[in-house]
Design goal:
The chain is mainly alpha-helical and 131 residues long. The protein is built from 4 helices and no strands.
Length: 131
């Protein structure tokens, strides 16, 4: 069975490595054109994925079923499409704008789904402790 928590955590640390490496490369070359890509890799890739993974670790029941799998798929697919299309756009080659827009929609939908998952998990937790 897929562990949504483990997969988000693994992708989070890989994103941190990629984002930091890009930052080092930019600094070494004094070329900061990809600064928005660097920021998105660190925030959407590292911070968001790690927080998703930690949430699913803290609320293991929330990581079961089809909702977290859809959340995972949308978040990862959106992220993997957005990074190269954003890089092309900031380098002045916005040839894949429809794909970039689609990836942004996927990421917003993944966050909306995560909101639903968090509310469902925390509502169940609140009810269990109130009894």
């Amino acid at each position: 069975m897929i562990s949504v928590s483990n997969n988000f955590l693994r992708l989070g640390v890989l994103s941190a490595l990629v984002g930091m490496s890009l930052g080092v490369w930019m600094g070494a070359n004094q070329d900061f054109v990809l600064r928005p890509v660097h920021a998105h890799i660190n925030l959407l890739g590292f911070a968001s994925m790690m927080l998703f993974g930690l949430f699913y670790r803290a609320f293991p029941a929330a990581g079961r079923g089809w909702l977290p799998l859809v959340h995972f798929a949308l978040a990862v697919l959106g992220f993997l499409i957005l990074m190269p299309t954003l890089a092309l756009a900031v380098m002045g080659k916005p040839v894949f704008m429809p794909a970039m827009i689609a990836s942004e929609i996927m990421l917003v939908l993944s966050m909306l789904l995560f909101v639903v998952i968090v509310f469902m998990a925390t509502t169940k937790k609140d009810e269990a402790t109130a009894a």
